[in-house]
Amino acid sequence: MGKVALGLLVLWLAMSVGMAHEPHQCPPDLADEPALSSHLEQADIVAGQIAFERLVQRGRELFVAKFNRCDGQGRPASTGTGEKRAPDEPHFIRTSAPDANSCAGCHIDPRPGGAGEFVVNVFVMAQAQDPVIESVSARFSNSRNTLGMFGAGAIDMLAREMTADLQRQAAERGDGTWVLSSKGVDFGVTITDGEVVSSQGIDPDLVVKPFHQSGVRRSLRAFTVGAFNHHHGMQAEEHFELNPARSPAGDHDEDGVTRELTVGDITAVTVFQASLGVPGRLMPAAPEAAARVVRGERLFEDIGCAGCHVPAMRLESRHFVEPYALNPPGTLSDTAQAIAFDLTREGEGPHLEPAPRGGAIVRAFTDLKRHDLCDPPQAAEAIRVFCNETLAQDRPDQEGRPGAEFFLTRKLWDVGNSAPYGHRGDLTTISEAVLAHGGEARGVRDAFAVLALDDRRAIIAFLRSLQVLPAGSPRVVTREGP
Predict the structure, then answer these.
(1) Rounded to whole angstroms, how far apart are CA atoms 415 and 420?
(2) What pLDDT score was predicted for residue 482?
């Protein structure tokens, strides 16, 4: 956040102590009530007046609320990216959005916070269109499946630590081409005149962006602020009313409602998502079936899947901290307002595994790096299942290949109960998803394809054991049956 924006935000926070935000009122012609009964003030959160458990509960209420016109749902004079437009577009439209009443309308499987089916795909970049479009053609948008948010707090903190590592290493290097490494993951960079001018698997700013399948959102808060405006037309005051870059201030979307989501509201829903349990293992009780899972995990590593789907990374800190200093402009980034909780003990559970000598272990099966899974078009028997996007969405071209072909390595820790698969959600089985890998993963894919059927079944059994577990359960649960 810029100094001016930060100054205005701090001033507003100081003035708001003790000034509770009353619920919004419906227009006089509507005999209804808003979905939200009240709103949170950031000053009260920072002052410790709202217990952690209550903060999480309020965040959950925001996540599942079905926003309506009285809350400020809709954005007649604003696109999904926040740009001003004439208030003459449809109130709801499946392509350019608003397209959902609640976060849980899409993030629902196996419970609020989870993944979504193909039917709730989002059309990324269509929200920027003015006038809106009805086409779902790849010329206008990227069709993306809804991913689960379980373990999001741990993923956010991993990305922050990796970012700090990479930026520190780059600052210590002179001009030249280098390989920077964090948590065992390598990123190639070229530095000229002290600036990173090109990079592999990451943007030149060296900020690991773990949200969106294209890896373009740097924090859970930034993801949340953008999603509320895009999908619901619920505008966060920190991005609109308190952001000098947005003009005019006040009712930016001209729907008659101001302060639709307070700074405190965004903190609450961010902390709720960060506190969701981490996925774990659902192991069969039968010895033969359990042995198959163990053998499948060994084969998964033997054929090279673990090269990108890194089984485990270590967090140096066990705490999720909000806000983040590198949150983008228009998003709260003042660390003087920060709150924190222990990912190994607090939240719904399962919790992260504490690491020896401090920190925590994150078993997410990802390297948080962008990769190209597309064979060259001219290659014999080219595999290009994951090459159907034409819009790069801020992904830079890399080594002569278009940015639209690069995707963040999918987290596999929930793969057992987060079907369908692929960035579009158009693959119904795990085997199909594996066999769709080309490009950088072609060798590993081919190694899987030539395995004996029983070995492939073992790998799939292992992957199916990686699941979102019931809230509050341990990290490993045993089930009866095969």
Answers:
(1) 9
(2) 56
Q: Which two tokens stand for residue 230?
A: 């895009």
Q: How many CB atoms lie within 10 A of CB 422?
A: 21
Which among 276, 305, 145, 273 is positioned nearest to 213, based on CA atoms?
145
On whether the CB atoms of residues 185 and 162 are closer than 8 A, the answer is: yes
pLDDT digits (tens, 9 = 90+) for 403-456: 999 999 999 999 999 999 999 999 999 999 999 999 999 999 999 999 999 999
Question: How high is the mean pLDDT of the chain?
Answer: 94
Of 7, 72, 83, 90, the residue nearest 36 (C-alpha): 72
Q: Are 185 and 150 in contact (CB under 8 A)?
A: no
Longest Cα pair distance anywhere in the chain, in angstroms?
69
Torsion angle defined by CA atoms of residues 274, 327, 316 and 164, in that order, rounded to the nearest 10 degrees: 160
DSSP 118: G
- Residue 481: pLDDT band by 50, 70, 90 thresholds? low
Whether the predicted pLDDT of 47 surpasses 70: yes
pLDDT in tens, 164-222: 999 999 999 999 999 999 999 999 999 999 999 999 999 999 999 999 999 999 999 99
Q: What is the pLDDT of residue 18?
A: 39
Spatial CA neighbour of 138 closest among 388, 354, 449: 388
Distances (CA, A) of 356 to 315, 318, 319, 359, 413: 11, 12, 15, 7, 22
Burial of 47 (0-12, 13-18, 19+ CB in 10 A): exposed
pLDDT(9) > 60: no
Produce one character per residue of 55-92: b if its CB has 16 or more CB atoms within 10 Å, e if not. bbebbbbbbbbebbbbbbbbbbbbbbebeebeeebeee
Pairing of strands 353-354, 339-342: unpaired
- What pTM, to 2 d.p., does this model score? 0.94
| Helix residue ranges per DSSP H, 346-391 | none
DSSP 154: H
Q: How far apart are CA 355 and CA 192, in angstroms?
A: 38
Which residues make Cβ contacts (< 8 Å) with residue 178, sequence separation at least 6? 169, 170, 188, 189, 190, 191
Report the SS3 class of residue 180: strand
